[in-house]
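Aim 2, interim progress. The first record below pairs a target sequence with its structure tokens.
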Amino acid sequence: MVHTLMSVLLLLVTVLGVSLNASAQSSQDASQRLVTIVGTVLDGQSDKPLRGATVQQVGTSRGAYTSSSGGFSLRCIKQDSILLRVSFVGYAQAQLSVAGDSSSVDVGPIRLEVSSRRQQEVIVTANKRVQAVQDVPISVSIVKTEDLAQRGIVRLDEALRYVSGISIARDQVSIRGASGFALGVGSRTMVMMDGFPLISGDNGDIKFDVMPVADIERIEVIKGAGSALYGTGALGGVVSIITKQPTDVFSVSGRVYAGLYTDQPYEKWEYMSGYPLLGGADVRAGQRVGNWSYSVSGGYRRDQGYRQFDETVRGFGFAKVTYALSEASNLRFNLFHAADQRQNFLYWKGLDNATRPPAVQDINERIVTSKTAAGLEYSTVISDEQSFIARYGVFRTMFETLNPAAETPAGVSIALAHSADLQHTASVLSTVTLTSGLSARVNSVTSPIYEQTLQHLVSVFSQAELNVGAGALLTAGLRLDREETLTLKPHLELSPKLGLSIPVSEDLSLRASVGRGFRAPTVAERYANTQYGPFRVRPNPSVMAESSVSSEIGIAWRNTTFLPFELDIAIFDNELYSLIEPSFDLTTPGIPIVFTNLTRARILGMEGTLRFAITKDLMAETGLTLMDPTDLTLGSILKYRNRVLWYSRAMWSPLAGVSLQAEYRYQDRVQAIDDRLSLFVTDADVRVPLHLVDLRLFADASDHLRCGVIVRNALNYAYTESIGNLGPLRTVLLQVEMR
């Protein structure tokens, strides 16, 4: 096995060397047939330079970024007419034709106009490099910083609930039905921040409270298997968080919010006099000074909860420092820390007591957690044809149960997840872009639940993007992962992908893709030996990796004439193999839970998203996902999955500086769960369709001050997102934002 891995590593190093040599050779051969195009990219209204805009030669993989002065220099293949595409987040895309019959051309200033059309945006996650949305062969959703501010988002999971095709059950993110209910263990969605993975080393779950919302520029959601580039955990998709870049002048922003949970919908659910309160504040500051730039933020949250014994207190801080080693090279350091203490509401006493824990729950118990993430990145543009990135990150999570009344302490669980990546991107030929790399991940766990455990993965990957003519891009990639835990036999996972994007016209594009995903079992799934509420969890070291094959075809159409709109439709097929599910061991006294490879499943579906402008001041969007989740092992519907996900939003600005918003979210009733849960949780089988309405009103008090009223679950609708857990009831918030 070691010999096999060394052979693969040698092969990848050879590929990297070949790509370097080939790109150098092709650069020499092409030097006589290249033209250098220079210019500047400016804001169309203020004429201020736009730093970080992308300039691409349409139909090739050649591109460049603008500098702090807005300037760019791009070496293009000589043609009678060269078509350039200029993009910047939040601005309408521009295209211009340049005569390519000389060795150098100065196109002068290129002015971009502000636009709300998301179709114009660039993506960095889908293929690990910057490219236009229409060039990506897989479905992508984008959540922008304005969306987070308008919704009063304080946790990442709140933002993801408004993305088409996504459902969330506690800390489980399910993209197009990939995940079900797994007791907060084993995420099938890879989550990253600025390229660094944020999946815990023990449970392999998502820690939503570690995301610095005030510093988020945008969130990119890649739907479908992504293991060909991102390895384990990307079985269902990828959520990538990109943080904000500092401005050339000192900037500071802050937000304060406070509110309450209103009356319970049923009198028998009332458990306290008065209203439970919640509130928080965060602040962010940043600036670019010479070769240095920095961004720092911090915040505090307190929530008494809408249920008894459900209070949470949390604080966090984030810092990002970048040093420009040269015009082409940067060194960046990220640091984040969050700590909280909360009461431990596990599940309800019963439907008649949905806001109270069961009598066996120890109300003296407190959960204390801390999460610390640090990362170092070196990036450089070697030439017009080559770039290189090296990253190292560590994510530390700590979990402790405090109980002053307990005779013996529960102990502290600490997990360290180390990750390292090397990535090289090169234009090997004028029509081919090759992205290759090495990555490694080591999970080290010290815990009374898992004892001392070590898991490591080593990976190699390579992906080629080929321009096949008329602007169409063919993508082919392959990744090999080797996973080993303690003394268990190591195993290999091979993850290929293939995609095609075809621009039929400037406003119409087609796409198709197929790819494999996998997820190695987490330390918790193999070695957990603990009591979780009424559930006794036993280890099962023999559990093996689960996998998926995701395929889709899609169309994106943007109409700019009468009633402007953007329409995206996708038909998808997710094939799921050896799914790891928690199951009850009926052969053992006490009926413990063990994680085993149980299910072969298929999820067929269709997803459509429509955004349109009814008038200049009235915008609307809606997204509908229809799925048929089938458990092929049992010949029945797959457990804990929805068939229908529907989301709609309307935004109206009747006056300057005033915005009204209404949002509706629907999920059909989950038809199948594990009926044996009723042995442990009263009324575990109670579930209803989800109907949630949110209302928001924002008004600008000045150029720098914005006030808002936010009403979540305005109808005070009672529902469950996970077994035995009532969802958040009506919440009224007042928010003041300084910009």
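The second target in this work package is listed in the same format:
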Amino acid sequence: MFINRLLIALCLISCGATSQVLKPAKWSYSAPKSVQVGQEIELIFKATIDKNWYLYSSEFVCDGPTQTSFTFTPHPSYELVGKLIPIKPLDKHDDIFECDLKIFKGTGEFRQKVKVLSAPLKIEGTYEYQVCTDLTGQCVPGDGEFSFTKIKVIGKSTLVPESKPDESEQKPEEEKVQTESNNQPTSAIAVSSPQQWPPITGPVLDPSLKQDANQNQSLWGFFILAFIAGLAALLTPCVFPMIPMTVSFFTGRGTKFQALIYGLSIIFIYTIIGAVLAPLMGPETANHLSTEWIPNLIFFAVFIVFGLSFLGLFEITLPNRFINKVDQQAEKGGLGGVFFMAFTLVLVSFSCTGPLVGSILVSSAGGEVIKPIVGMFGFALAFAIPFTLFAFFPGWLKSLPKSGGWLNTIKVVLGFIEIALAFKFLSIADQAFHWRILDREINLAIWIVITALIGIYLMKGFRMPGDTGKDAEDKTISVLRVSMAIAVFTFLVYLIPGMWGAPLKSLAGYLPPVSTHDFDLISAAKKEKATEICDAPKFAEFLHLPHGINGYFDYKQAMMCARQQNKPLFIDFTGHGCTNCREMEARVWSDPQVLQRLKNDFVVVALYVDDKTVLPENEWYTSTYDNKVKKTIGKQNADLQIAKLNNNAQPFYVIVGLDEHVLVAPKTYDLKAENFVKFLESGKARFKGL
């Protein structure tokens, strides 16, 4: 179980192909060029609908499909007259919703009468709609904005209607429908005294508020994990037998100084690998490797291959010709020969160390240039120390256990663990793109089966290809194997309640979120009333907050609500592939003192920095930070964090006031609930001016 937790931590990254953007409906709107005060005019909204698609109308009695609707922003220059009128919609019976609907095919038209009260005339608002096709069963919701601000108000009635938008006066609005977001439109939140606050632009961080980042602790923790992985690599069939061979190389022909150079050479060779890869681990590359579907599927396949190799299906080796050339250099003697002897050890042991080294390198893809170097140094240090010590003190060899079947047992167990961990990479891509092919219960089921196989194997319930000799024939089970089996089966029993929704807090960062669990009896039984917020949050159909917190996933919408409710805004910079984010939610946010404050004292917004949902084109912008166009929810949230807060790590918690100024030093990963309570309380006190 210890090795299980170790490799889980090592394999996780700190913190379908690109879909075509569907545009089934394009909108335009028109109005008279001029009107007299007191006169009624008719606003015309037209939709051009793609072939084989249809648009839902605005009037039918049926729960389910999204009706087309128009929301007008109140203004003293006009008032609405009557209801929105759809022009000649078609009848359609929907078998799924079991009701009669009204739809449009080809084109759709809606009209709204308004009365002009004063000049200047300003008519603005938003619309939402849904288009569907029976060919593929797809439905695409959408929303947009309209604006009539160029209608001339004259002294007498000279009404000149238009049937089409005037290009010189008003450009038709084309709705860009996103593919994967399915975000619901949000009507404007009425903020009292709107002139009181400046436009929303993003958090403002005072330089005096130092970020409470635990980078050094993070690197130390990663170093320790890599060091333990190096020790684990020693207990593999292609490494352990190399220790006596190394000692025999130095006995009688080498000095203690050469033994020291030998150990340092091992460390140098592994560390240089990390140094070469370090420039590739920048923030953009790391985020791409962490969340894009192609890299994660590659990582998934690599771990599966490594796992099958450990199980004995095949052996991963480097070309013998290359190894022989290096070995020939080692035979020349001298310090150069010592170095090539170390190089030979690294190459020969690759089939067993490769999967562990690969896990460390993948885990280091978190945007830190130094992290791959630290990880490889820690692994190499642990790997080199025993070889160096036994070269110094060859008499210690007598105390070593003989190599045998127990080494293959360790290799097989590591193989099962590699396969289990492979699904983490598939899970990250699945969450970032909302494929929903590896929900929490599916991931748990895979882990339960693999854990059971490990336990049965340790109890000699079956053999693997590498299990040969007396150890394999002997049905006697050692106390050590029984102890390991007890630990594995205990872990298995711990996993099983998760199939019914148990939180499994210790694994919260390694499993898909509970919101993806379809058979969640525990959460349903404990369901509480949601927190009151101002308006329906955008993206709520595929993004979620834990523990019944009702909040937002769009910064501007959340800031508007904070101003309306006169509450500080709690920003959670998070990610689908962020292990520590899930662990914080499971262990810290679930604390009653923390949860009560988040639900009652703040407006909460979760900003996913790795979500791949493509936004409508009219919401794209070019970043002032890197001059790149930000098209997705994740890219825009990541840009907000970097450009405004000079930080790109998650989890990252920020409390801002109604003027968007950060109130207290931001908070990072910290599993002590009492510290998080202090953070929230200090933010509240600063907000109230205490």
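The mean pLDDT is 75. This observation will shape the mutagenesis plan for the next reporting period.
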